[in-house]
């Protein structure tokens, strides 16, 4: 038997001016004129160049007109610190974005401060020299002084009171000068030593995710790394980058709005009632952009719309908060972090909010490489009740970053509807090198269902329903399994949310993972990795072994989902239930589809060690994929949760299944039916193999988990293939 517990688990935007009036001189020390970028360039006339002479392209910037600069200079003299309302009014008069005005005033204040500090620094240096000379004079006087009584050297105490006071004051002034000089040095144009190290530092990695990609391991099985630590190795933008980031974001927002609202010929109807981007029309329409497509990359563009049960204010808040965003979209976003907030918005909301982020996007399988992006996210209110949030890659600001994925302007347009509903139009426009995708997942990735707008909208719609159900007041009481208390429902849903997020972030090919393949016989090989669980109240302490395998099975994804979520079928595949009867003890519906629910199951096994074991399970489904995730839970801990207690201290090791369609297919009458042909099934277990975190992983534990997952797969295949026949 297993002594194991199942677990829980560049190109830059072309910022060329639209007319000659936009040309103005750049930032200088003596004649301050600003631009939205911060690199100083001298204007070069094309007539002066030899056409045959090959020169590298220079970045083109949007420069403020002379009138704009003069008006802002005049305003600065009266008010160097304008508030949000003044910046907004000034931007309207000058035809600029409020953020551009904000950064101009920031740069102007910085320059004025630098000039002031240079002057003060010069005075302080002169004073320092004077004091040093005076100090030397005192030292010399002390050295030559003699005692009037004995003729020997004079002691310090025999110095005059004034001399002692001057020496003490001299030391104090020297320390003050050194301190102020250090501060002033930051503004005199000298590079700080740390600025030379602002290039991004990604950890060494490979999309193949072999163990060797992560260097020496502590054992024969790869380990899970701290995702947050890896993201923190990416630095935020420099001060020199920020005005250019504003320009990129403003142009991206303009492009997103046109992409979301345009019809033909930009978007054309494709097969299966889908929309396809006309790339030729796109290039003609959007002459400014992040540059041409890189060699080896292909374009993925999709658009999807839906009405969701959430008001526009909450939607915007979720999208602008990295933690909420990665939680709601945990099946797509494996890791996310806000590196720096450049603007929090105006008028007390997210209008004008701008932040630089990094994120990793995934498919729930170790066989599909994740997609990493370093991007800016910009939120803007266009009209009353209409908001838009746009992302666009900042690869051009990171020349050392070899990106395999770029986000052209992507995001969503949100329109307010009555009764707390919103209409969402989502646009995903990606350029990616996907040559590392395993063959069985290639049709799904090529169809756009893996990373496209349809998956984002499907996930959002489902999660909005889940959130709405957690706040429901009128719960029908006809079913005895239904949890009717609001506190109990909220706690159980919060626990299930943590379980689902833990499973989703642990099953993919994230660079935080070091999967080790146990065999090399095919795509359905079992991959394992370990994690040391210490001082985490949400996980049992010890050595946790994760195992996962992905394979194709000729069973429709809906059929696969219904089989795995049904507690009556559990004994056909769950080895650890030991054939015992499984009974649903509590149930929370969290969506229109009956498959979207959270359940508490009891396993009534003849084995006394497993009798009365409880299993927390959440099943969820939408048109692009499904999950069945579960974890054994302690009875006493669940009683506390059902009473409305804090679920954060319930130890979970989630396991489960991710079910994806093998690509778009045709159902009855030739209608598009996602996953009508077969399913891509990922099976993932987490097992506590030793309760001592410092213990060594044994080969026997790995062999046991390998056998467990292979046996489970065979049982599932036998059961569903028999029923399918």
Overall description:
This protein is an alpha+beta fold and 725 residues long. The protein is built from 15 helices and 22 strands. The strands form four sheets. Strands 1, 12, 13, 14, 15, 16, 17, 18, 19 and 22 form a ten-stranded antiparallel beta sheet that branches. The chain is globular, with a radius of gyration of 32 Å. Keywords: Coiled coil, DNA-binding, Homeobox, Nucleus, Transcription, Transcription regulation.
Radius of gyration from CA coordinates? 32 Å
Oligomeric description of these chains? single chain
Extract low-pLDDT stretches: 1-56, 155-159, 183-219, 666-675
Helix content: 25-40%
- Compute the separation of the termini in Å: 33 Å
How many helices? The count is 15
The number of strands is 22
GO molecular function: DNA binding; DNA-binding transcription factor activity, RNA polymerase II-specific; lipid binding
GO cellular component, one term: nucleus
Protein name: HOMEOBOX-LEUCINE ZIPPER PROTEIN PROTODERMAL FACTOR 2
Keywords: Coiled coil, DNA-binding, Homeobox, Nucleus, Transcription, Transcription regulation
């Amino acid at each position: 038997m297993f002594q194991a517990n199942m677990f829980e688990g560049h190109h830059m935007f072309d910022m060329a001016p639209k007319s000659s009036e936009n040309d103005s001189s750049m930032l200088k020390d003596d004649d301050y004129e600003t631009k939205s970028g911060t690199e100083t360039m001298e204007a070069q006339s094309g007539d002066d160049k030899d056409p045959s002479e090959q020169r590298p392209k220079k970045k083109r910037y949007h420069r403020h007109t002379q009138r704009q600069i003069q008006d802002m200079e005049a305003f600065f003299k009266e008010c160097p610190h304008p508030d949000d309302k003044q910046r907004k009014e000034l931007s309207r008069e000058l035809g600029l974005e409020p953020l551009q005005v904000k950064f101009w005033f920031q740069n102007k204040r910085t320059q004025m401060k630098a000039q002031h500090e240079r002057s003060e620094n010069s005075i302080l240096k002169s004073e320092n020299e004077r004091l040093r000379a005076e100090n030397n004079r005192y030292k010399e006087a002390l050295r030559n002084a003699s005692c009037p009584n004995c003729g020997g050297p004079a002691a310090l105490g025999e110095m005059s009171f004034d001399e002692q006071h001057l020496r003490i004051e001299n030391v104090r002034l020297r320390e003050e000068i050194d301190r102020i000089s250090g501060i002033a040095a930051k503004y005199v144009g000298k590079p700080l030593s740390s600025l030379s190290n602002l290039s991004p530092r990604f950890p060494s990695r490979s999309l193949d995710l072999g163990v060797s990609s992560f260097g020496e391991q502590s054992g024969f099985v790869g380990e899970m790394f701290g995702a947050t630590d890896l993201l923190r190795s990416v630095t935020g933008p420099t001060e020199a980058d920020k005005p250019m980031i504003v320009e990129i974001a403003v142009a991206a927002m303009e492009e997103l709005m046109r992409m979301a609202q345009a019809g033909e010929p930009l978007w054309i109807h494709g097969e299966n009632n889908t929309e396809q981007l006309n790339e030729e029309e796109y290039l003609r329409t959007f002459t400014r952009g992040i540059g041409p497509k890189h060699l080896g990359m292909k374009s993925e563009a999709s658009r999807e719309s839906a009405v969701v049960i959430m008001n526009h204010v909450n939607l915007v808040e979720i999208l602008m908060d990295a933690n909420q965003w990665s939680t709601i979209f945990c099946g797509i976003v494996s890791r996310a972090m806000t590196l720096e907030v450049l603007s929090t918005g105006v008028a007390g909301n997210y209008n004008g909010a701008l932040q630089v982020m990094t994120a990793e996007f995934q498919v729930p399988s170790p066989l599909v490489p994740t997609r990493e992006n370093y991007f800016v996210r910009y939120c803007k209110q266009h009209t009353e009740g209409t908001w838009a949030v746009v992302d666009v890659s900042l690869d051009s600001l990171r020349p050392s970053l070899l990106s395999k994925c770029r986000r052209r302007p992507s995001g969503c347009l949100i329109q307010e509807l009555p009764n707390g509903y919103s209409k969402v139009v989502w646009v995903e426009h990606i350029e990616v090198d996907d040559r590392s995708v395993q063959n069985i997942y290639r049709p799904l990735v090529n169809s756009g269902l893996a990373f496209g707008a349809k998956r984002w909208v499907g996930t959002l719609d489902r999660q909005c329903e889940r959130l709405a159900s957690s706040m429901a007041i009128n719960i029908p009481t006809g079913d005895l399994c239904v949890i009717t208390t609001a506190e109990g429902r909220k706690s159980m849903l919060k626990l299930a949310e943590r379980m689902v997020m833990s499973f989703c972030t642990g099953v993919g090919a994230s660079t935080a993972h070091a999967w080790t393949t146990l065999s090399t016989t095919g795509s359905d090989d079992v991959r394992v990795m370990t994690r040391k669980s210490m001082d985490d109240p949400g996980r049992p302490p010890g050595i946790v072994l994760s195992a996962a395998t992905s394979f194709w099975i000729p069973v429709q994804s809906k059929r696969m989902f219904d089989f795995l979520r049904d507690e009556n079928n559990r004994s056909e595949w769950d080895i650890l239930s030991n054939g015992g009867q499984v009974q649903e003890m509590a149930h929370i519906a969290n969506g229109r589809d009956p498959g979207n629910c959270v359940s508490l199951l009891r396993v009534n096994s003849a084995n006394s060690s497993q009798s009365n074991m409880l299993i927390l399970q959440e099943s969820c489904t939408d048109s692009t994929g499904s999950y069945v995730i579960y974890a054994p839970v302690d009875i006493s801990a669940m009683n506390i949760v059902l009473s409305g207690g804090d679920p954060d201290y319930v130890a979970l090791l989630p396991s489960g299944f991710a079910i994806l369609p093998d690509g778009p297919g045709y159902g009855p009458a030739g209608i598009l039916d996602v996953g009508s042909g077969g399913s891509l099934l990922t099976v993932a277990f987490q097992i506590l193999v030793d309760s001592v975190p410092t213990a060594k992983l044994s080969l026997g534990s790995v062999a046991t988990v390998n056998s467990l997952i292979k046996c489970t797969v065979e049982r599932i295949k036998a059961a569903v293939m028999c029923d399918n026949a």
